[in-house]
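Exercise 7. Given the encoded structure of a 380-residue chain, write a plausible sequence.
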């Protein structure tokens, strides 16, 4: 077992952080991914401002996109960067605070560029501290940040378990890309090939065997790679072959999962899930101002999902949801839409979210395909 702690740097969006965590947690195995509430903060002295003109940044072609970062940090045309030692110190401090063992990984996820402008770096001291650069991926690989970030987290761990130090890593990285996780990529665009091949070449596999890297870790890594590949392909082919992925509603907690998209999960709160499941039960469509007629049905869905201890709030939350005087239902419906949007992209979302003008009947396009047991219902 390897515990992997993912630390959110203060400027990295919480939503993106959870996208990455949810993706990785969808692939169980010896690598166990943990979130933490402790954010990584920087003092002024730890952030340097570098000129746009620096060659190092031109190389990565980030120069066009710096304005976004600058808006948060500085009005001058400068790029904020942190040193490697600062990043690894943050990881090391967390390790000490939590009394973590030597085999546990601590990985800082940060939008800030670093002194050598690497996408990913491991602690040169040999400790299992790493960072992954989380910014600018959307522009380079034509996809969602969660894929390259999750990819680099697992591939970084595998590299750490395979190679003893940077010298050795440098010797083995493939200068000519072959679609292997150990391809040396200078440009974020080149990373796209690795994500699409989702592979480890036979030379690297042989080395891992010789180094006794646990097979179960290699298997889990390949599953993550494959899951990322599947999700990316499904989304990029969608405009050409618009076949809807099946949506599974699983278990007592009514998890919303897309197995064809590498078990992608859409995480809704219990109240959001209540209104969503309710509309799935009513393909004929129902106006928002008629919801109070269905109070009992909503209450029964919500009671089964509610995990808190304040039973009085169950009734009041539903009363509020149904009340024509509150915006609660509309708010939940737009929250649900943005969560599906986030997970599936705009084009696909239309089919799964609750649609309809505000004064009109609202409904969901997809239909029940199969209900095998109470444990599983399939929509598509
Ligand atoms: Zn290789």
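Solution.
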């Amino acid at each position: 077992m390897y515990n992997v702690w993912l630390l959110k740097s203060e400027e990295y969006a919480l939503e993106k952080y959870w996208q990455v965590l949810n993706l990785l947690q969808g692939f169980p195995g010896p690598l166990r991914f943990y979130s933490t509430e402790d954010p990584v903060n920087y003092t002024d002295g730890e952030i340097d401002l570098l000129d746009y003109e620096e060659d190092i940044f031109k190389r990565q072609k980030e120069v066009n996109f710096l304005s976004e970062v600058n808006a948060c940090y500085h009005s001058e045309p400068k790029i904020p960067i942190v040193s490697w030692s600062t990043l690894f110190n943050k990881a090391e401090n967390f390790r000490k605070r939590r009394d973590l063992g030597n085999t546990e990984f601590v990985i800082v996820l940060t939008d800030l560029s670093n002194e050598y402008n690497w996408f990913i770096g491991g602690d040169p001291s040999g400790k299992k501290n790493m960072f992954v650069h989380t910014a600018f991926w959307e522009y380079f690989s034509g996809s969602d940040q969660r894929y390259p970030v999750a990819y680099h987290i697992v591939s970084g761990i595998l590299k750490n378990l395979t190679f003893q130090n940077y010298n050795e890593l440098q010797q083995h990285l493939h200068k000519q890309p072959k679609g292997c996780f150990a391809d040396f990529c200078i440009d974020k665009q080149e990373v796209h090939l690795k994500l699409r091949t989702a592979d480890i070449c036979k030379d690297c596999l042989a080395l891992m065997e010789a180094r006794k890297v646990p097979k179960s870790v290699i298997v889990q890594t390949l599953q993550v790679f494959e899951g990322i590949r599947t999700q990316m392909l499904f989304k990029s082919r969608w405009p050409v072959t618009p076949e809807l992925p099946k949506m599974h509603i699983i278990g007592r907690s009514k998890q919303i999962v897309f197995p064809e998209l590498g078990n992608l999960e859409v995480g809704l709160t219990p109240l959001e899930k209540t209104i969503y499941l309710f509309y799935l039960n009513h393909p004929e469509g129902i106006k928002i101002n008629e919801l109070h007629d269905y109070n009992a049905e909503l209450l029964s869905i919500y009671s089964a999902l509610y995990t808190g201890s304040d039973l009085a709030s169950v009734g009041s939350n539903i009363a509020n949801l149904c009340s024509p005087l509150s915006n609660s239902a509309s708010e939940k419906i737009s929250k649900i839409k943005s969560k599906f949007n986030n997970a599936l992209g705009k084009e696909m979302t239309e089919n799964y979210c609750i649609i309809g003008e505000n004064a009109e009947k609202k409904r969901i396009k997809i239909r029940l395909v199969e209900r095998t047991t109470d444990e599983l219902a399939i929509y598509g």
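Remark. The longest helix spans residues 215-237. Students should compare their own answers with the one above.
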